[in-house]
Design goal:
The complex is a heterodimer of chains A (435) and B (293). Chain A folds into two domains: 55-179 and 321-387, Response regulator (Rossmann fold, 3-Layer(aba) Sandwich); 180-312 and 401-416, Response regulator (Rossmann fold), CATH 3.40.50.2300. Helices cover 43% and strands 16% of the residues of chain A. Chain A is built from 16 helices and 14 strands. Chain A has helices at residues 7-10, 12-29, 68-87, 107-120, 132-145, 157-160, 163-168, 183-191, 209-224, 239-252, 264-276, 294-300, 302-305, 321-334, 343-362, 367-374, and strands at residues 55-61, 96-102, 125-127, 149-151, 171-173, 200-206, 228-235, 256-259, 283-286, 309-312, 380-382, 385-387, 401-406, 411-416. Chain A has a five-stranded parallel sheet with strand order 2-1-3-4-5, with helices on both faces. In chain A, strands 7-6-8-9 form a four-stranded parallel sheet, sandwiched between helices. In chain A, helix 11 links the parallel strand 8 (256-259) and strand 9. The radius of gyration of chain A is 23 Å and the shape is globular. Chain B has a domain at 26-220. Helices cover 74% and strands 3% of the residues of chain B. Chain B contains twelve helices and two strands. A two-stranded antiparallel sheet of chain B has the order 1-2. In chain B, helix 1 runs antiparallel to helix 9, helix 1 runs antiparallel to helix 11 (240-260) and helix 6 packs antiparallel against helix 9. The radius of gyration of chain B is 19 Å and the shape is globular. Chains A and B meet through helix 1, helix 2, helix 3, strand 7 and helix 10 of A and helix 1, helix 4, helix 5, helix 10 and helix 11 of B.
């Protein structure tokens, strides 16, 4: 008995319980670590003529957890492609059947899911998960089993240069590589007279490959243009971290804020803090979040969205016949308006198109043949535009655009490259916050 | 640099008030019932969704809406206790409550997904984005109101526990459940009401979280629970005032660290917990928390 200690320290049950609670929560919070055991298994090599059963395609998506908004949009994109392709007779006369598992936005669960899809469900083909953070661990599982991993949201360099892909070269990202995200914006700033360029810039970046990946290289490029860096930090993706970061940025009063964000809540937290600090940057561009259509404008308010920019390779008004047809089909299937269609939908849909082309060209679902075909340098057409893969699966033909919310946040417009088909004049100075 | 430090301290204090509102119910429930409520994070989110529904559909002011959400959450708490907690007895009760409250969290999360979906929601009001210029800083009204609410809430809970007949019953139950039964206290009723109060006050934390976090969805609660547990351990498990002090202390430390290295702020948050517990193993107010006063 230790009489100097309070009651709960003398109570072994309680202390054990407390320790269990902290341990359980810590374990739950830890997302790295265990990898699934390899079960091997050869990929299927099924001739279309010999098999009329559906082509089973497996995917893991973040239907719950931090990436659930994007994950659900991706699910809609995959399922829209599935229903479209089946309505047109399937691939090689075979219907397509999707099996999607929820990875809860967790890098460990995503590995388990792909292992289950490969070893348990014996899927013919794999579609990728959402985000670079989950694509890298997924690829280690897919590569071991010899599967091609065609994906639409794993565009950071870490995905392409990870050891599994460097060895097996089985990742294929149909979207714009993240390293090229800000090219049109930088080109535009370069084209401006020095007097019209921002004098100072802040680079707050979320601790995520998609957050810091595209923004970090820009800092030195803009510095070379004479744009002085007044803030550049990577912050954890924790709710309590946003306000102190945003307040520091606001205090530095930069002309340009380039936010390395991955989702809507991060951008919303910065917008809210900027309003509280009565600071309005002249230019505000975010890596991710403003591209999420109605989910973004409803979060920040339409008026506050006005003037905010985001780089991407697609938007609902994209001047491409296949894209327009997809948007119409989306609205017919899920409702809403064309301008509210999330860019994730097009990324997912394009994954299906590329895989369908590969299956058709190789006359089956032999993943080794599909990998060879996709590395052949052939240019494929998708709702996002052309796709040509380099040796590590980057889309070298991807179109890079910058989009901006305009007309009081009611119009999501392609503004860069200026002069490009579909581009409208950019609003160079962001209007003040609406409330 | 001095201005940055003062700003970080102000941020830490104000955000600490929000975390205190989220943690105070957790420490109350632990102090009285010896239950570590793993569902606390999800209950915070439930509170946020209730405020969202009232705000978005009935256009009710966020603070005014608490007049509805707090009683509603009290009922939720009593029901959870009646359905899941009261049956747990014996030596493994504390460990079992971890599992049971985790199950409760999963159930609530599933219901929220079913009703609201996975999209992020926000709580908006004019005072969420407006601020007052004070001592050279812009201090957001929402955080000032939230901090005031936290102080009032802590004071109210103290008054309830130490100035009322019900509070005496609660403290008697805390000191010795068997003895409390012998002197005629309805221990089950006290436990149910206390659990209800613990969940009810979480409605305020939920509203504040929803208004300041940038967005929440049914899954957002899991990011919170480890921090809330750290706060109540540091404050002294069972100490209501300790939760407020610990929340302000830890969030201020975290905010200060972000000036130099934001990616270290989370590590320092938990390192501060360890350092303080090494020096003072009972936490800030652990020596004589609720029971002995």
């Amino acid at each position: 008995m230790r009489p100097d200690l309070p009651w709960f320290y003398r109570n072994r049950k309680l202390m054990t319980g407390a320790a269990l609670a902290v341990s359980a929560v810590t374990l739950a919070a830890c997302s790295s670590g265990s990898s699934s055991s390899a079960t091997g298994g050869a990929t299927s090599s099924t001739s279309a003529a010999a098999n009329s059963s559906p082509i089973l395609i497996g995917a893991s998506l973040s239907l719950t957890g931090d990436f659930s908004t994007d994950g659900i949009a991706f699910q809609k994109g995959y399922e829209l492609w599935e229903s479209d392709v089946n309505a047109h007779g399937g691939i090689l006369g075979r219907q397509v059947s999707l099996k999607i598992l929820d990875d809860k936005s967790d890098p460990t669960q995503v590995q388990t899911n792909y292992q289950t899809l490969i070893s348990g469900d014996h899927v013919d083909l794999l579609f990728g998960p959402f985000s670079s953070l989950l694509t890298t661990p997924s690829d280690s599982v897919a590569a071991r089993a010899g599967y091609a991993l065609v994906e639409g949201a794993g565009g950071t360099e870490a995905v392409f240069t990870n050891p599994a892909n460097q060895t097996d070269k089985n990742v294929f990202d149909v979207s714009l590589p993240v390293k090229d995200y800000f090219k049109p914006f930088i080109n535009w700033l370069t084209s401006l007279p020095a007097s019209q360029r921002p004098k100072t810039a802040a680079y707050p970046m979320a601790d995520d490959p998609f957050g810091s990946g595209p923004v970090q290289p820009v800092e030195s490029q803009l510095a070379a243009l004479g744009v002085k860096t007044v803030y550049s930090k990577v912050f954890p993706e924790e709710e309590s971290a946003y306000k102190p970061q945003a307040d520091q940025v606001a205090a530095a009063k930069p002309d340009l804020v380039m936010l390395g964000s991955t989702d809507v809540p991060t951008v919303q937290a910065f917008v809210q803090a900027f309003q509280q600090q009565r600071y309005n940057p002249k230019m505000f561009i975010a890596a991710g979040g403003p591209d999420q259509g109605a989910a973004f404008t409803s979060a920040v308010g339409k008026g506050n969205a006005d003037g905010i920019m985001v780089p991407n390779g697609w938007y609902p008004g994209f001047q491409n016949a296949a894209s327009q047809a997809m948007v119409q089909a989306y609205v017919a299937k899920y409702g809403g308006t064309a301008s509210g269609v999330n860019a994730d939908v097009a990324e997912a849909y394009a994954v299906g198109q590329v895989m369908a082309d590969a299956v058709t060209a190789t006359s089956g679902t032999d993943n080794a043949k599909i990998i060879t075909y996709l590395h052949s340098g052939k240019t494929l057409q998708t709702v996002q535009g052309p796709v040509t893969f380099d040796s590590l699966g980057r889309n070298t033909a991807a179109l890079a655009y910058t989009f901006q919310w305009q007309q009081n946040g009611t119009q999501f417009s392609q503004v860069l490259p200026s002069g490009s088909t579909g581009s409208v004049p950019i609003v160079a100075i962001k209007p003040n916050w609406s409330s | 640099m001095a201005a940055e430090i003062y700003r970080a301290i102000a941020d830490g204090i104000l955000i600490g008030g929000v975390y205190a509102l989220m943690a105070v119910g957790l420490t109350l429930i632990f102090g009285v019932l010896d239950i570590i409520n793993i569902a606390q994070g999800v209950l915070v989110i439930l509170g946020a969704y209730l405020s969202y529904s009232l705000s978005a559909r009935l256009h009710l002011d966020l603070f005014l809406g608490l007049l509805i959400t707090v009683p509603a959450m009290f009922v939720v708490g009593v029901v959870i206790h009646w359905a899941f907690i009261r049956r747990l007895r014996g030596r493994e009760r504390t460990a079992m409550t971890l599992l049971v409250t985790y199950a409760v969290a999963l159930i609530i999360e599933g219901i929220l997904y079913e009703i609201y979906g996975a999209s992020y929601r926000e709580l908006n009001a004019s005072y969420v984005t407006n601020s007052v210029h004070l001592l050279g800083f812009y201090l957001p009204y929402i955080y000032l109101y939230g901090f005031a609410l936290a102080v009032v809430l802590v004071a109210g809970l103290y008054a309830l526990l130490y100035r009322t007949r019900f509070g005496r019953s609660v403290r008697a139950t805390m000191q010795d459940e068997t003895a409390a039964r012998l002197i005629g206290i309805d221990v089950n009723k006290v436990a149910a009401i206390t659990f209800g109060i613990g969940v009810a006050v979480t409605a305020t934390g939920g509203m504040m979280f929803g208004a300041t976090s940038g967005g929440f969805n049914p899954n957002s609660g899991y990011d919170l629970i480890s921090r809330l547990l750290a706060i109540i351990i540091l404050g002294g498990m069972g100490s209501i005032g300790g939760a407020l002090v610990a929340a302000v202390f830890m969030l201020t430390v975290e905010s200060l660290v972000t000036i130099w290295s934001p990616d270290w702020s989370i590590i320092v948050f938990y390192a501060a917990l360890i350092i303080v517990l090494v020096v003072r193993p009972t936490g800030f107010f652990g020596r004589a928390p609720v029971r002995a006063q």
